[in-house]
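CORE FACILITY INTAKE
Project code: CF-77B
Contact: R.S. (postdoc)
Sample description: multi-component assembly, two entities in total
Requested service: structural model of the whole complex
Turnaround: standard
Below are the sequence entries exactly as provided by the requester. Do not edit them.
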Amino acid sequence: MSRKGGSTAIEGAMGLIAILLIVQMWLLTATLAAFLAGHDETILPAALISGIIFAACAGLFIFIRRIDATVRATR
Amino acid sequence: MKRLEDEFAIDTATEQYVTRRQFSKFLVLTSLGMFAGNLWILFKSWFRHPTAYTERIVAGMNEIGVGEVKLFSYPEPTDSCILIRTAADQVVAYSQKCTHLSCAVYYAKKAARLECPCHEGYFSVTDGSVPQGPPPRPLPRILLRREGNQIIATGVQL
């Protein structure tokens, strides 16, 4: 992979992580509001979705590291 | 003899530089923190015991006229509440803490609603719901029971 291509892939992945973080932040505040209002039925699905988002972020981070290593190796 | 620059190869101008990898790691750790927050809420909800409320006389019907209010504390002395007599035979009570930022709400008789003076949040006097303003949820309602002339608080409905 070329340096420019690698850079684009990394920036895309970072942008995706940022979007996922915004969604996760909204999810956390909404869950807290539901908990304080006594609506416990939404808390478990919210925790599961938050876990999935974290897994996606970790996956993208591994992707970034791999691309970075590949580009550095081919330089 | 080793020079200081050899020992510390990063100069002052670039020591604040954060690589994309470091920044990505920070973002992922933030995501982990928010996931931990969600798990914490989940555990809190699992171990939340329903509060046992004690019944307490908060007012007498002859103490407040129609459209008047009485302030009282329930269930703890620090939980201020507002009792409103909306009709000759009807009283309602809510927590006085606004669900937005905990300002004390007051009863606006003309508009027949509870108003928060801090950020103009309004609550319905009928059920405590939020028709307008920043409060994210209704006011906790104090459950009441009447025994003759006495008004007795029996619990709190979130």
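Facility notes:
- Helices of chain A lie at 3-36, 43-74.
- The interface with chain B takes residues 10-11, 13-14, 17-18, 20-21, 24-25, 27-28, 31-33, 35-38, 40, 43-44, 46-47, 50-51, 53-54, 57-58, 60-61, 64-65, 68 of chain A (CB under 8 Å).
Invoice: internal transfer
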